[in-house]
Design a protein that fits this description.
about 450 residues, five-stranded parallel sheet
Length: about 450
């Protein structure tokens, strides 16, 4: 798959590189695994020479041999002896950058924790002593998002707040997912676009895997995922166990419960069989895997709360792969494919709401976007988009099939909302339906 989008991120990285010729720059690139962080940096700097250090899990002295070869190859500078410690190389590069501007990209930066945790405090010392006279463009990123974030935002960590930029790489926007499908499969149907979005969530690697294998329709995508050699089946574990560590089973149980519709705390605890307050807090605030949601204009912070998974792929993985792992263990691929195809309309219907929520954000036309439901669960409004500057509000009903949208029913729900919240008085109100035809 060719490189798509990331225009603003590339422009930012090029701006940082230009600034580094006068003042040292230290950029942290974050984002979930498979989002395309490495590809982004390599693309941004494809036209300039730079040093690329990949931190593999091997002894520090072996890593240093690899890094030293890279330095000598890219700079033409022969180094005296063989470096045994990373900090020796880093100190030399900081010193070199005082006279010659250079760019250093360190990938899988969190792996230093496994190799030699002291590297971070040593880097702090060298950076603090030299950066004011340096012309280095230092970029670091890694695949374990929570660790990378902790290294630079935890007050107790030696590299706390040493970065000059903190760049978060997000999934592809809805418009980009659509652009990619239009480019590779111009005859696509709305259901194909929804299926690609609902399963990949716009994560670059997942989109690339499906596109490169020419899997563009719902059936082709599902059949491709559920096969013996699929890289999607073990993906949830390979990504999340590294994030959660040995306590992953408890986190998996919570995420699985949410993915299968148990969205309130008491419902989740009933499934998990234990008190989960601390786990929910960490999933929301430390790992950013879930979000706590309340109806728009809810006055009480601790009532009428539901939890949702933030990532489309993990929603899919826990809903269909983790839940039915017992089928996968006996290679019952045909049977699980039948289950997924049977239940996919319901799952993708929820993802369609997320698609339009993100599309409304990307439009830049609104100051507040949310949903609303009453405490009895009798009235629910899928999306409300508000522009407080011109005092307009649009209420949306979202359905896969446009024929199932009832605007009179939506209007009755809006009337209940207006009476219950006493908000948006004096606003110009509109009601609309959104379906796959509007994607």
């Amino acid at each position: 798959m060719k490189f798509f989008n990331r225009t603003s991120e590339i422009a930012t990285l090029k701006e940082i590189q230009a600034l580094s010729t006068e003042n040292a720059q230290f950029t942290v690139v974050t984002g979930r695994r498979r989002i395309g962080k490495t590809a982004l940096v390599l693309k941004a700097y494809e036209e300039i020479p730079f040093l690329y250090f990949f931190v593999a899990r091997k002894p520090e002295n072996e890593l240093c041999l690899n890094f030293q070869d890279e330095i000598e190859l890219k700079t033409g500078m022969k180094m005296m002896g063989k470096a045994q410690r990373f900090i020796e190389l880093f100190e030399n590069l900081m010193e070199m950058s005082k006279t010659v501007p250079l760019t250093l990209f360190i990938d899988e930066f969190q792996e230093f924790l496994q190799i030699n945790p002291a590297i971070y405090s040593e880097m702090q010392r060298v950076w603090d002593l030299n950066h004011s006279n340096s012309k280095i463009n230092l970029i670091v990123c890694g695949s374990v998002n929570s660790l990378i974030t902790k290294i630079f935002t935890d007050l107790k960590e030696p590299l706390y707040n040493r970065q000059t930029r903190f760049m978060k790489v997000a999934a592809f926007k809805t418009s980009v997912v659509k652009e990619i499908l239009e480019f590779y499969h111009p005859s696509y149907r709305p259901d194909d676009l929804l299926s690609l979005y609902a399963i990949s969530g716009g994560v670059a690697k997942y989109v690339q895997l499906l596109v490169d294998n020419k899997k563009f329709t719902r059936n082709d995508i599902i059949n491709f995922i559920f096969r013996s050699d699929s890289v999607f089946l073990p993906e949830g574990k390979s990504v999340l166990i590294e994030e959660f560590g040995k306590d992953y089973i408890n986190y998996f149980a919570i995420l699985s419960a949410i993915a299968t519709g148990k969205t309130r705390r008491n419902e989740i605890e009933e499934v998990v069989g234990r008190e989960i307050g601390g786990y929910l807090s960490r999933l929301e605030n430390d790992y950013r895997f879930i979000s706590k949601k309340q109806p728009l204009f809810e006055k009480t912070r601790n009532k009428n709360i539901i939890y949702t998974l933030n990532d489309c792929f993990f929603s899919f993985w826990f809903r269909f792969i983790y839940r039915y792992n017992y089928m996968l263990e006996i290679e019952a691929y045909n049977q699980i494919i039948e289950v997924v195809k049977r239940d996919f309309d319901i799952f993708s219907g929820h993802m369609l709401e997320r698609y339009f929520y993100n599309k409304l954000i990307e439009s830049g036309e609104y100051t507040r976007i949310g949903s609303w439901w009453d405490r009895k669960g009798e009235n629910e409004i899928d999306l409300i988009a508000i522009n407080e500057l011109n005092q307009t509000a649009t209420f949306f009903e979202v359905k896969r099939n446009a024929d199932k949208i009832s605007l009179p029913l939506l209007q009755r729900k809006v009337d209940v909302f207006m009476n219950a919240t006493h908000e948006l008085r004096g606003y110009t109100i509109a009601i609309k339906g959104l379906s796959m035809d509007d994607m």
